[in-house]
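Expect chain and fold; thus:
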Amino acid sequence: MSKGDEIEERSMQIIEEEVGSAKYNYASDEWIVVRRIIHATADFDYARSNIDSIVFSRNAIASALSAIGRRCSIVCDTDIIPAALNKSALNALGLECISRISDQSVIEEARRSNRTRAEVAMRMVRDHISDGIVAIGNAPTALYELVRMVRDDGVKPMLVIALPVGFVSAVESKIMMINVADEHGVEYISNRGRKGGSTVVAAILNALFKLYMQRR
């Protein structure tokens, strides 16, 4: 075992020791994902806070693993998420991450239409969303646009990771997403608080990659 592996293993042991009974709120696969988030953030609120705890729809993990097995597209709202993913896993699994937030066409259209870049970018990747994974860790406007597409256009991703972070519209967009996803049969991983971010989303994806590779 490498030194890095030893450190990670000890970190996971500490998390298990300190989290207490909160881990039993999750199924075993769900806890693996939540534990990875805590490892990435050192924040136990993701497991034991009333509003910031991670919530999973009924078949979120199974749907995610099915999507990965189909070599799905992963649509991201920022360039930070792809940069934080395990590149070896991405290559081994044949997965493509798509982020258009920095595209010149997105910048120009956002300026022309007086919309946010995140909203415009989500519209531009619409064709990659159905049967894919959508990972949102920064922009509530991206999540609102995704909700609109699910509700009004029949777009249906296999998983939405909805964890925009912040004080303006982050909570509201998550709650709306959860309600619309439940109505339309879309699986999700989210929470109902202000916390989240690209680091959290990347931790979730990396945990899902590892789960899939351990089981195939």
Summary: Strands lie at 55-56, 73-76, 96-98, 133-136, 159-162, 188-190. The radius of gyration is 17 Å. Residues 51 and 192 are 5 Å apart (CA to CA).
